[in-house]
Amino acid sequence: MPAFREEANVASTVQDFLSTLVREGVPHAVVVVDDGSDDRTGAIIDRLAAAHPGRVIAVHHERNQGYGAAVRTGLETALRRTGFREILLTDADCQFRAEDLVRLRERKKEERADAVIGYRRRRADPWRRRLNAKVWTLLCKTLLRVPGRDVDCAYKLIDRSLLQDLRLSGEAAAISPELLCRISGDGARIVEHPVEHYPREHGEQTGARLSVVVKSLVSLAVVYGHMVRDARRLGWARRLAAPKDPGAALVALAAVAVAVAAYLYFADHGYLLAYKDANSHLLIARRVVDSPTAGLAQLGGVWLPLPHLLAAPLSLWEGLYLNGFAGAAVSMASYVVSVRFLFAHARSLSGHWAGGLTAAGLFALNPNVLYLQATAMTELLLFACAITALHYLHEWCTGGRIRDLSLASGAVLAATLTRYEGWILFAVTAAIVAFTALRRHRRYAHTEGSLVVFGFVAGAGVLGWLAWNLAIFGDAMNWKSGEYADSSLWVADGEANVGSLPTAMETYGFASLHNLGIATAALGVAGLVLYAVQQRLGSRRLVPYAMLVFIPFFVWALYTGERPLHVREVMGALYNVRFGLIMLIPAAVFAGYLVGRLVPLLPGRRIAAGALAGAAVAGATLAVGGAVTLDEAVEYRASGWEADNAAVSAWLREHHDGGTTLMMSFENESVTFESQVPTGSLIYEGSYRIWEEALADPHAAGVEWIYMRATPGSEDDVWEALWGTETLEDDYDLVYDEGDRLVYRAEDGAA
After folding, report:
1. What's the CATH code of the domain at 164?
2. Which of 121, 143, 390, 479 could tie 194 with a disulfide, CB 3.0–4.6 Å?
């Protein structure tokens, strides 16, 4: 008990505890600290100590040092001069009663808690003190994240073990939140319990004095600084300032600079939204937060949801949505993660930082990667998930730490929710986990355990997406066979790859070569051969081969007509050529392995290592010869189809007044996005129930604008439903008719 000028209260407070603890048969001692009082407080506690030797311990400060110092002295005395297992911190002002200690001890035993902190059921203080206390508690919880709803309640029962090596520095009221912060930071179990609070009948409260308040605030700032110093708070800032892996941190920092520079370059040239699919991804993200039927159901059932969920918060800002940054930000962050973990993975694999630098550089400076990371596409997010998963899976195969396996499973989960290639990654990594566990333990039970740890998380995305499609569309396979998922929608009749395995192999080979460049591909193949020769095929050696599975996967997809991919050498045009970019990951890793293994053979290793890595990256990057992924997007935008879309989009931007608009989104994504018609007023095929009503009778549904595509053989659903109907002829005027794009507006201007 700290006591300052408590001559009227201290005796009755101490006697209350002494009699209650005797009645309960609890061995005890009461430590009272007189904090330099200028009244009779010191004499009274000396008299109590003489009357109850061993049960009352009186301690004196020669001068007043403040509440914090009194608490520290009391704790130090209790620990030094008594051997009791539990210590109660309270005040000597008669505002608390000993009977609550009995209840706290019972609660502590029931909960098997390390500490029970009281909170005042009804605070018996003036309203100003109650208001100050609420503000103080909010401030302490915000800064220090301390437990409890009543931070400065002077009734805390704490295990001796938590206080044994505690070093407190807080002054005035800051001592209490500092104490809670330090004992809660070590995994201690802390529970709350209500206590009674009684009005102060004698003496003066000093906690509301301006000098005490200022002292408490200053001390709280100092305590916060100490918590940061001791890594109990703002650990991320400490790790940022002094990272555990400085090399990886520098690589990530360089990647941030490159990502920003590339974004600004492509933005300046107007290429950020060259891909039609980039418009589609932004539209989905925006509709989650702003549409006539906003909500998670707007995620649909064909494209996987994670990229759109990540972009949705930024899509709330219309400017970030319209300029594409809402989606590009996800790609840019994924780019940085990819570069950082490629460095770490290749360095670990090759045994030298030059190998990591080579892998990271080949990926980071590849023109196709630089373009895709600057736009709202989903490839970079998949790459980041895959590279992270492979790195941690390799670490688990090498060291067997369950943390690495858990991190790998989380990365695979994210991949399965990003692109369907992630599902293949899940199957391959699960097979590696099973093989590794079986080789390591030689027992089925341990293998099963590792698979459960990995598969429970990593496979949740696949099962969740099947369940989502079943719940939303009534068909778990809607993602593959639904109205907007069938491969016939994008694989044309007479596709050269379909049914011809040599053509499919040739097509994917050219696509990969165009994305990687001949030099990167050559380095990757050389590194693969060296790795296969040097590393005996074992469980921990399998991980680098994992990404090679995408070669047969894409070849089979082309052969069976599941996906189209065109290259000029085979079809005379470009389409989905970015599918080959995923091969850059294994190529970069094996090239890094090659460089890392060559370094020990060179004289002046540090300089030679940097020179070798730099030469490999520079030469390979220059040999790529431009961004074929950008070429494809630019060629598509130059087509007559997109010229018609651009014309009607420009007209709508000028004339549309924000009224409710009926417009099919499928195959009209460019117009939907670039017209800048507010998504909150757009009725499209994903507008639950509203869509069918609007197609049946747009005027009755309140539709003011109607857009339809009348291209022969490619008419959209709005044209199919409304063309030639009385509703369209009687209630709407044709206001735009160019290139098979038609726009109608209600005759009365507002339906």
Report:
1. 3.90.550.10
2. 121
Across 579-588, b (16+ Cβ under 10 Å) vs e yields bbbbbbbbbb
Phi-psi region of 203 (alpha: psi -120 to 50; beta: other; left: phi over 0): left
| Whole-structure pTM value | 0.73
Domain termination site, one of 175, 197, 230: 230
Q: Rounded to an integer, what is the distance from CA 236 to the centroid of its chain?
A: 14
Q: For the segment 436-481, what is each residue's pLDDT rounded down to a tens digit?
A: 888 876 667 677 888 888 999 999 999 999 999 999 999 999 999 8
Residues of the chain with pLDDT under 70: 124-134, 136-137, 139-148, 170, 173, 185-187, 203-216, 219-243, 441-443, 445, 537-540, 603-606, 749-751
7: containing domain: 2-230
HSE-up of residue 484 (Cα within 13 Å, Cβ side): 14
Establish if 722 belongs to a structural domain. yes
Name the 3-class secondary structure at 175: helix
Q: Which amino acid is located at 712 in the chain? A: P
Q: Quote the DSSP letter at residue 575.
A: B
CA distance 337 to 389: 11
Of how many residues is the chain composed?
751
From the number of C-beta atoms within 10 Å of its C-beta (0-12, 13-18, 19+), residue 200 rates as: middle
Cα–Cα distance between 417 and 425 in angstroms, integer?
A: 12
Sign of the C-alpha dihedral, residues 423, 424, 427, 433? negative
Domain count along the chain: 3
Q: What is the CA radius of gyration of the chain?
A: 35
Helix (H) or strand (E) holding 745: strand 741-746
Q: State the first-to-last Cα distance of the chain, in angstroms, to the nearest integer.
A: 76
